[in-house]
Amino acid sequence: MDNVYSLLAFVLLAGMILGSALLVVTLRNLVHSVLWLIVMFIGVAGTFLLLNADFVAAVQVLVYAGAVCIMLVFGVMLVQRPNMEHSNPINWRFKLAAPLVGGLFIVIGLLTAKSQLVVSGQEVPAQTVQALAPILLNDFVIPFEVAAILLTVALTGALLLVKEVKANGNGS
Amino acid sequence: MVDFALTHAWLVPLLPALAFVIIVFLTRPWPKLSGAVSIAAMFSSFVLASSVAYGVFTNPGFIERPLIYSLRWFGMEGFTVDVGVMLDPTSAMMLFMVSMVATLIQIYSTGYMHGDPQYSVFFSYLSLFAASMLGLVISSNLLQMFILWELVGLCSFLLIGFYTFKISAREAAKKAFITTRIGDFGMLLGLLFLQIIFGTLDLAGLAERVPHYEQYGISLGLLTLIAILVFIGPIGKSGQFPLHVWLPDAMEGPTPVSALIHAATMVVAGVYLVGRTLFLFSEVPGAAEVIAFIGAFTAIFAATIAITQREIKRILAYSTVSQLGYMMLALGVGSLSAGMFHLWTHAFFKALMFLGAGSVLHALHDKADVWEMGGLIKKMPITGWTFVIGGLAIAGIPPFAGFWSKDEILVVTLEYARQGHALGYLLFFLASFTALLTAFYMWRMIFLTFFGKEKPENHPHESPLSMTFPLLVLAALAAVGGLIGTPWANVWGKWIHFGHPHHGEPNYGLMFFSVALAVAGIGLAYRLYYQDEEKKLAKQLAERYQPLYKLSYHKYYIDELYQWFTRQVVDASAAVFYWFDIHVVDNIVNGLAGATKLSGQGLRYFHTGRIQTYALVFFLALLVITVVLAFGSPTLAGSMGGVHS
Amino acid sequence: MGTALNPSYFMVLSAALFAIGLYGALSRKNAIAVLISIEIMLTAVNINLVAINKFLTPEAFIGQIFAIFVITVAAAEVGLGLAIIIAIYRNRHTVDLDDFNWMKW
Q1: In this predicted structure, what is the pLDDT of residue B82?
Q2: Domains in chain A: ranges and CATH
Q3: What is the pLDDT of residues A24-47, one digit of tens each?
Q4: Minimum-distance CB partner of A111 among B613, B623, B645
Q5: Which of B604, B609, B615 lies nearest to residue C102, judging by beta carbons?
Q6: Residues B494, B501: Cα–Cα separation, whole Å
Q7: Given an 8 Å threshold on Cβ–Cβ distance, is A165 in contact with C4?
Q8: Which of B252, B417, B397, B259 is nearest to B329 (CA)?
Q9: Inter-chain touch A100–B626, beta carbons under 8 Å
Q10: Domain C7-97 annotated CATH 1.10.287.3510
Q11: Interface residue A44 vs chain C (CB under 8 A)
Q12: Closest chain B residue to A99 measured between Cα atoms?
């Protein structure tokens, strides 16, 4: 019975994710797009929970649904004119892009159907955070530190980019 | 000591090479020190070489089984090259002879080159020259030998052009280098053939395999071709006709260099190489006949030129060419023993005569025309009398060295003729006639230079001890050096031979004949250039046979012929190729560049700068490649490097 | 197959999400919308990683670790991307990607 519930949950989550994702890429109003993006991220977090990855799910909600989306909204508001209708037009490429992504999806789907995955059958340990921490801080400590440096650099760089342009704008 | 020398024979060439390095990098600013380093190294090398020779000549086992030790230089599948040392009586003799003559010449050079600004450089070159030649002598492998052979050529280039301020010296150096390169190219081809067919260049290995050439799937004709290709190298290096032209011009170098080139090192390298590869030439009678005939022809050809030359060193140079022809003749008729014996005696008397000529030039401040000399023997007794000994030796008066070796060559040539070879008697005739001419032109030079009336404008003086000492040593050797190869007790032939040792009964008739030829030659020279104080008869003869005289004096116009050939054929074809290069090759290259540029011009409009278009194309291509790899035919997928899932 | 969850389901979901993201990235004019679409594509990859982690190597946790790193990099990327877009907007007063064509021939 557990299987049926999880399958049901999967179908619901998948519908939620794909539906909101389609809305994100088709809506004309950029702010609406960002809002639907939050919905999609939450759906993905649910999928992660379904996959016994509670820590990743938490990070997903915190980082994406929280920080990234808020940042995007701020970005939209900084660059967009007051009228948000038609703030997100579609260019001529969609005619080509639509069959392309359709083909890509079919190809990946076919490959997935063809491939034989060896399912281990074991369960993910319940305590994921306790299991993750030693791996992250022992085996992956160097990538971990590099990621930290990357974030610092990205933050500094973003600040620098925005600030310099502003100074130029004032000067001119 | 002897055992050490035998197992460390590679030190013999290494010591002078080391001296070269030391002089070039350390002691160049101090000429005296450089000279001392060079002579010390050369002398140690001589001592070592003597021990090697002693070790070899007290152990008859080395005749049949040479002492060989080698090191793997490089190797790959089916192809290995070793560098090593091969000691047998022939190489031991050469080692001894070369190191001794080189030592004496270096001692002589301290006097001859005294005060030259390039003194250190000169000694460094001499050391390198000796090192290359000694290395060549002990090589166990033809490739190794070829490398050192080229090094010898390089050193000769450096030394012939030593007086870089003289245009003629520079030209002569280039001529020597290019002419010998022509020969080396042929030889390299021959060596490549040998390597490809027999799979080795080791002398010992080749000696085993070449006699069974049919097992390696080649015909006698191809083997003859290979042998002749290999022989082209010695033609260039040993100044055989038609590549002899560089040798007389090599006189532009300092005289000790001429002595070294002509007596002990460079030119005998070719003879030595033929001697070393005699197993090849003895297999192919055709090639051996070519060698014998070229040798005999060169001998008479150079001798007829030498008759009319005026410069003292030029006469000696043509005499060298002629004597080298003798050696080749001996090798061509199949006698290693006679060829090497003449090489041995020739090294002594020719080094002696060159150094003597150098002494004369030194005294007369580089006045080289023999007609402007005369009576020098009174002022320069040591130079004069040692020169006379050299003259007697080369003319073939017993018991001096040249007589025995020349007699040996005549004997083997006559035997060759009696075995029924087609041109045998012609060869014998050429050899005998050359002997007559040799005696004549040598004594013509001696009478003109050292006897007769003194010229008042000359103020000769005897050379210092450093120059006369080598002369005395060499004169002694030129006098007695041949006694080890007399027909009665032929020690030489017992040790150095190819195939089975030569057991000729002393041929008294032939001996008498060759002495008669020598005496006739000397007598003719005496009559024309000593008795006849005004040389009227000689001048009359030159007048009467003026076309012949001119032909000989201008060296049969060979140089002019080559020059004409270069002008007409080489330059003309160069013009054609120049045109081809400018108009065809350049246009192709420029056209390619233009096409690239044009297509670039066209293609850049695809660079719209719109990133999304790029991404679109990228993913389209990705889709196509994925489809091909995943669902396409296995061969195509394989060729694109994909793994079929 | 039955009703049990299968990794293929998640892969197909991930593929669909990736395709939608790609469509957005290729067809929107607005630079911020393209940035959003790229986030969708990255998320699709994360689903794949976590699903494979669960079904194939549950003990190793490598998939989850990778997902965490992807999220980290994605966050940095969004930050920088937005900064660049704002900088361009300040200079050019446009966020239309088709106007960003200064890097041509």
Answers
A1: 81
A2: 1-97 (1.20.120.1200)
A3: 888 888 888 888 999 999 999 999
A4: B645
A5: B609
A6: 6
A7: no
A8: B417
A9: no
A10: yes
A11: yes
A12: B620
Is the CB of residue B613 less than 8 Å away from at least one CB of chain A? yes
User: In B23-141, which ranges are continuous DSSP H helix?
Assistant: 31-57, 61-64, 89-112, 119-138
Query: Tokens 């002749």 map to which residue?
Result: B228
B234-238, B272-276, B636-640, C24-28: range with lowest mean pLDDT:
B636-640
Contact status of A75 with chain C (Cβ, < 8 Å): yes
Domain boundary assignment for chain C? 7-97
Of B607, B611, B619, the CB nearest to C97: B611
The rounded distance, in Å, linking the Cα atoms of B133 and B120 is: 20
Q: Kindly list the distances between the CA atom of residue B38 and the CA atoms of A12, A82, B29, B125, B259, in Å, as whole numbers in the listed order.
A: 97, 96, 14, 10, 17
For B531, other C-beta atoms within 10 Å of its C-beta total 11
pLDDT at residue A164, as a whole number: 58
Where are the domains positioned within chain B? 1-140, 156-283, 285-553, 555-607, 608-645
Structure-block tokens of residue B557: 């116009």
Structure confidence at residue C44 (pLDDT): 92
CB B30 within 8 A of CB B105: no
Mutate to test the interface with C, among A61, A68, A129 (most CBs of C within 10 A): A68
CA angle B419, B212, B201 (to 5 degrees): 105
Secondary structure, 3-state, B601-618: HHHHHHCCCCHHHHHHHH
What ipTM was estimated for this complex?
0.88
Nearest to A114 among B616, B626, B645 (CB): B645
Tokens linked to B65: 């089984």
CA count, 13 A, side-chain hemisphere, B416: 28
Nearest beta carbon to residue B609 from set C26, C34, C101:
C101
Q: Which residues pair with B86 in a beta bridge?
A: B68
Is the model's pLDDT at B368 over the cut of 60?
yes
Q: Region C35-56: what's the mean pLDDT?
A: 89
Cβ–Cβ below 8 Å for A154 and C80: yes
- Share of residues in chain B with pLDDT > 90 (%): 3
- For B63-84, write each residue's pLDDT tens digit: 777 788 888 877 777 777 788 8
Which of B604, B610, B612 lies at the smallest CB-CB distance from C105? Answer: B604
Query: Which of C 30-49 lie inside 8 A of B, CB atoms?
Result: 34
* Chain C residues closer than 8 Å to A40 by CB: 40, 43
Q: Tens of pLDDT along A135-154? A: 888 888 898 999 999 999 99
C105·B615 Cβ contact <8 A: no
The alpha carbon of B288 is separated from its chain's Cα centroid by a whole number of angstroms, namely 19
Cβ pairs bridging A and C (under 8 Å): 246
Interchain pair A135, C65: CB under 8 A: yes
Inform me whether the C-beta atom of residue B627 falls under 8 Å from chain A C-beta atoms: yes
Q: Which residues of B touch C104 (CB under 8 A)?
A: 607-610
Measured between beta carbons, the chain C residues lying within 8 angstroms of B609 are 100-105
Q: DSSP code of B70?
A: E
What is the average pLDDT score of chain A? 82
CA distance B510 to B233: 33
The pair of three-digit structure tokens given for residue B372, joined into one six-digit string:
């402007």
Q: Are B475 and B352 in contact (CB under 8 A)?
A: yes
List Cα–Cα distances, B165 to B31, B110, B248, B249, B316, in angstroms: 20, 21, 20, 16, 24
Q: Give the model confidence (pLDDT) of B285-321 as tens digits.
A: 888 888 888 888 888 888 888 888 888 888 888 888 8
CA angle B538, B542, B544 (to 5 degrees): 115
Select from C82, C92, C94, C98 the residue whose CB has the most chain A CBs within 10 Å, as the one to mutate to test that interface.
C82
C70: chain A residues, CB-CB within 8 Å = none
How far is residue B620 CA from its own chain's centroid? Answer: 71
